[in-house]
From TrEMBL, chain A:
Keywords: ATP-binding, Cell inner membrane, Cell membrane, Membrane, Nucleotide-binding, Transport. Pfam families: ABC_tran (PF00005). It comes from Ruegeria marina. It is found in: Cell inner membrane. It comes from the Bacteria. The lineage of its organism: Bacteria, Pseudomonadati, Pseudomonadota, Alphaproteobacteria, Rhodobacterales. The keyword Transport applies. This is Quaternary amine transport ATP-binding protein.
From TrEMBL, chain B:
It is found in: Cell membrane. GO terms for cellular component: ATP-binding cassette (ABC) transporter complex. It comes from the Bacteria. GO terms for biological process: choline transport; glycine betaine transport. The keyword Zinc-finger does not apply. CDD domains: TM_PBP2. The chain crosses the membrane at residues 21-43, 114-131, 138-159, 182-207, 260-277, 297-316, 328-347, 408-431, 443-470, 476-493, 500-524, 544-571, 623-648, 654-675. Gene3D superfamilies: MetI-like. Belongs to the binding-protein-dependent transport system permease family. Keywords: Cell membrane, Membrane, Transmembrane, Transmembrane helix, Transport. One of its GO terms (molecular function) is amine transmembrane transporter activity. This is Glycine betaine/proline transport system permease protein. It comes from Ruegeria marina. It is a multi-pass membrane protein.
Amino acid sequence: MSTSDTPAIACRNLWQVFGPSADKALTEALARSGGDTNAAAADLRALGYIPAVQDASFEVREGELFVIMGLSGSGKSTLVRCISQLLPGTGGEIRIDGENVVGASKQKLTELRRRKLGMVFQHFGLFPHMTVAENVAYPLKVQGVGRKERRARAQEVISLVGLDGREESFPRQLSGGQRQRVGIARSLAVNPDIWFLDEPFSALDPLIRRQLQDEFLRIQGSLRKSIVFITHDIAEALKLADRIAIMRDGKIVQIGTPTEIVLQPVDDYVREFSKDVAKGRHARVASVMQAGDGTRGPDDPGLTTSMTLDAALARCMELYQPVPVRDASGAIVGTVNPSDLAAALQVDDA
Amino acid sequence: MSVAADVAVPGAPRLTVGAQAALITALVGALCLALEPMAPWLGAWPKTWVLPMTDWVGTGVSWLLDWIKPVARLFSDIMVYPMGWANTVLNATPWPMVIGLVTALGWYLGGLSMAALAFVGLGLVLASGYWHEGMNTLALVAVSVPLALVVGGGIGILANEVPRLKGAVQAVLDVMQTVPTFAYLTPLLLLFGFGPVVGLIASAIYAAPPMARNVMLGLERVEAEIKEAAIMSGGTRFQQLFQVEIPSASKQIMVGFNQCLMAALSMVIIAAVIGGFNDIGWEVLLTMRKAQFGPSLLAGMVIVIFAVVIDRMSAVLATERKRYDLRVVWAVLAFAVAFTVLFWSSLPGASEVAMLDGVAESVDRGLTRFTQTNGVALEALKNNTLYYVLLPLRIGLDQAVLPFTWGFMWTPAMSAWVFGLGAGLGLLLAWRGNLTGGIVTMILFGMIETGVTNLPWPFVLTGAAALGYVAGGRRLAILVVVLLGTILLSGLWDRALLSLYLCGASVFACAVVGGAIGVASAIWTPVWRVVRPICDMLQTIPLFVFLIPVLMLFQIGEFSAFLAICAYAVVPMIRYTRHGLVDTPEEMMEAAISSGATDWQILRDVRAPYAAPTILLGLNQTILYAFSMLVIAALIGTTGLGQSIYLALGQADVGLGISAGAAMAILALIADRLVQGFAEERRKALGL
């Protein structure tokens, strides 16, 4: 079993290229460009290949909620399909709990999916000929779990997602939100360690989406899975993520916490995303605080490091002098100047 | 026609592909016409240039057949048993039980209306006195369908599992669907000998492709995410396929089941031509040959009843269906058993019922009276169509116009007039800016003057290649030329042109009439309400049955064949035309209305262009339908390839049978590719 410092998922230099004998084409392109991945990708494109994922490297820690964000066609869905080995991966390495899964045998992959992986799909992927209970119990059925036992476990997860009473319904009789609850329940049936969610809420209308996001956070709060979550919605990414990877044209352009993405975008592309985002709702006081017990005024509006900028600013609307910031335990860990808070909220006109 | 060239040259750089193709065709045609007196080989392909391909095919296939004959004979010996069982079971079961069973099944599948259909339908079969013949036919279907399901389903799954095979399987299925039904029979006859097994095998072979196609399509259409969900659930490939993908595709597979049943029934009836089995198709053929139209209609009705009942019942499977109370099923069955037991001794034998014999006789008498009283009108209709439409199309105005038919003699001056008229019209069109239309008009005039069967072969090849080039580029043009060249070399060219002419005439008639009915149905819903059930009916009726009424009214001959083909092939034209027109997106209609367009303007400027690709697909279906009916129509007197296939069957001449069948398939294939190409081009132009 993995120790706590082994990442749940580790991808190194992962490529997914589409086209005839892509493996060979990739090796040759990399050799020609001398390891310059951008040049290799351009080379492949010129030859008619599609490099959907280029040289992706990242780690997902145990219990972390890792969000991959990008516009449609940026390769995010391809990336998650590589990790879950629905696509073979053209080059690079994927380790799940320290074990390389690229090129693993069919049996091994089946075994892995039966024990460790769960996946939720954008359009739910429910089996139309099975009831809710049968859908949820299916991953157990293929393993040969007895009818009674799988029925009991299915009931457990159905309750977890709040679908009690709909066990005997067919997918076509459910609303979109309910269907995705079934999808979530099914993916949790085998109690996987690693949970893939491919734009799970994108097909739902905004109200239901928010409701399911909140429930998802509640479920994750109690289960602490290692999660790869795909979305094209920056607000959703910022709301849910521990860390976010932003993808563009098959490349990961930035990986960081929501605050980092909002306050320190690496390039215009990322900045463009965060432009419309109310930064005050996502950035924390810690990001603008000066550490240490520096000079400060007489006022103490009671700021803490984990407070959002919006909340902090509301407390020091009429203050001009630097104020103290406390950590969770109440000890003063730094100071912040109210004018810095306001400056951080400025929308940059890049 | 050289005038066209003079006009077109100044604008040469601006010529469209279509205009260029038309121009070249016109030039070749004109050249052939001009040079034919000096070089007769330009007109008809000389006999000495013909390769004995038919013989080669015959020798090759016979050798192959000899080789697999032992296996085939063994198979046929084995198949005798299930056929015997099915026969015994269906014939020995008391008829109240059979009717009760089918009625109960009808209720289970579709409730009261379906049960009523089954009850009334089988009641009529009983009353017709053809109960046993009908049961013999059903027995054949009952054995051939499972065979076709297993083979077709297996092929479909295999193609799905081994993607490399998909292309090949698809191509084979395409070919199998274009090869005319009769053409299957000759080699099978050689393999299995005379007897019902040939019909069984033929119908299984004929019915397997629709199943395979639908299984492939269904599996392909299963949502990617459903397949992925099955993988991520940790299912093995076997589990994924049988627990998730096939059940998810069940609707499409049921469509395949329905088509499979209908194809099997249709083929079993056609196979009756070779005889040896006392079934309902044979009965139709026999009575038709004896000109006993009453009984022949009655037997035809039995076939239609079977077709309708089987079709409607199995079609329900492919839809979202309600559950009907099972208690009714048991009640119906219990009643049937009780009825059988109580009246066992007093029940008449199934074939002794024959309550409709009187009806048949009076139909016969009535018909005789009708044809006698209206003989002149019928004869006039037939002769007018023949003399003024079909014959000129076939052999050209210069040969068809005789004092005997048109009342005067055709003179070279008249030919000049026709050419002049064509050239004038063509020039007018070209001058109005439609160059392609102008040249095509000239070509058409030239064709009417010459007649389809007298067209010089270089002209046909060039014309087909030009069409191919416009429809699908160089590759299609080459394919068309190679395929037609094969027919030319094989010596079947004359017969192919005959088939082409009759098919062309029927398709043209279908396009005009069907198109008009389709437009009317699209505009006035009441029309569609009348037309729709007729279309449903015409599509359900096995091909064979179409021959009965035309034969009754117009006797054997080309005109009867023409009518039978039209009756069968007009349906897709109507359906697709209406569907295309009705299908115009609401937004486009609203945009047109808010622009202030009248109904007529909307139809002409918005709906018709939008519907064009769909209508072309309808035309394509019509062509394929016409080809498949053409072969059946050989039974009532056509010339051409259909007749060759039929003759080959009678003489067990496998070389001729297969070659003529292949030639027919080639014609159908070319027509299919050309029209599909044009439809595709239209779709692209509309951005669909």
